[in-house]
Amino acid sequence: MNHWKALSIFALGCIISAGASGQVRTVTLGITTHCPYGVGGCWAEIRNGLNLPDAIEAIPQRPDTATQTFNLHMRQSWTPDPDLFAKNFRAMNVGVDVRGVEAMVDGTLEVQGTNLVLRASDNGPLLRLAPLTRKIQWDTRRKRAEPPTRAERKAFAKLVACKDPGRVRVTGPLVRSASALTLEVRKFQEISKSGG
Q1: Which of 31, 51, 63, 85 has the fewest Cβ atoms within 10 Å of its own Cβ atom?
Q2: How far apart are CA 157 and CA 172, in angstroms?
Q3: Cα separation of 99 and 67, whole Å?
Q4: Which CATH class is domain 3-190?
């Protein structure tokens, strides 16, 4: 079944609940540091480069050195902006390259034209959903991005095929193309009305 036909079936077969609130729960940054001691050895400097009190609620004590990532808990008022972190590292003069930004977003699904979108809050931005193209997690042994698992490659198609999913939690890379924000679906789960 092709992508557009699947979306049409989704639009006809699903009753989407309107008005449910949602939010960006966490953001995972995939980073490469210029520091010779790696992400773990230079974590204090990297943390200092995340001086964004209006956006970030909590920063972890340690990064995940195996995947060269770390999770940030974002403030509920934060408007998704995948470029924010790289800009701030540059402004703070911290030697870090952001490989990618992954978001875990709660919201409701809608269909707009031929696009499946996630409404992250009542009046918030719509995030266009798309299949996963690459992961931000790093394979340190092979020195390349971790390859997606079979389940991760099929997650978007599985979401499209869902019948009446209600509220969902979608996790995947957050990317900006032109003026649109796209959330690539690496995984998802249905969540209860109480917030999962």
Answers
A1: 51
A2: 14
A3: 12
A4: alpha beta
- The amino acid present at 112, given as its one-letter code, is Q
pLDDT tens figures, 142-191 = 999 999 999 999 999 999 998 777 789 999 999 998 778 999 999 999 88
pTM of the prediction?
Answer: 0.84
* 3-state percent breakdown (helix, strand, coil) of the chain, nearest 5: 20, 40, 40
d(CA 147, CA 120): 27
Tens-place pLDDT, residues 89-130: 999 999 999 999 999 999 989 888 888 999 876 666 789 999
Place of tokens 């969540």: 191
Nearest Cα residue to 99 out of 60, 133, 138, 125: 138
Specify the DSSP element, H or E, that contains 111: strand 96-112
Tokens representing 32 are 């490469």
* Helix (H), strand (E), coil (C) string for 142-177: CCEECCCCHHHHHHHHHHHCCCCCCEEEEEEEEEEE
Taking the C-alpha atoms of residue 107 and residue 191, their distance in angstroms, rounded to an integer, is: 9
Dist. CA 54–CA 8, nearest whole Å: 40
